[in-house]
Amino acid sequence: MPTPNTPLPPNALRHPKCGNWWTGQTRAHCPACCRTFSCDSAADKHRVGRHGIDRHCVDPATVGLVAVDKPYGVLWQNPGGDPWFNGPSIREAAADDRRWWTDKHAGDNQ
């Protein structure tokens, strides 16, 4: 984490209320509890209650989020075992793309 005399990265964003900073366009920072999350869906998980009535923050660990150390502090994110992350690997997806391209253009050179 930078010291007060260390400049922040050029792409850093800083929350004026707490002074915390982070990088990444998909990050979410809760203005109520000043925790930083990997994305909006992770941030939404830590907010419970009815909107406008009793909505409040809970400890992110209690709703299944995991803490990851980053240069700017702790980032809360969905665990790697979350079904969202269980799609095909990049290698598998690339192989599927190659098969699709090959099948589509099989007769082009004849």
Distance between the termini: 60 Å
> What ranges have pLDDT less than 50 throughout 5 or more consecutive residues?
84-90
Please state how the strands of the largest beta sheet are arranged side by side. 3-4-8-7
Q: What class do helices, strands and sheet pairing give?
A: alpha+beta
| Range of strand content | 15-25%
Shape from CA axes?
globular
Domain C2H2-type: 30-51
Protein name: C2H2-type domain-containing protein
Organism: Streptomyces thermocarboxydovorans
How would you explain this protein's 3D organization?
This protein is α+β, with helices and mostly antiparallel strands and 110 residues long. It has a domain at 13-80. Helices cover 19% and strands 20% of the residues. The chain is built from two helices and eight strands. The protein has helices at 40-45, 90-104, and strands at residues 13-14, 21-22, 28-29, 36-37, 47-48, 56-57, 66-70, 73-77. The strands form three sheets. It has a four-stranded mixed beta sheet. A hairpin with a 6-residue loop joins β3 (28-29) and β4. The longest helix has 15 residues, at 90-104. It is globular and about 55 Å long. Residues 84-90 have low confidence and may be disordered.
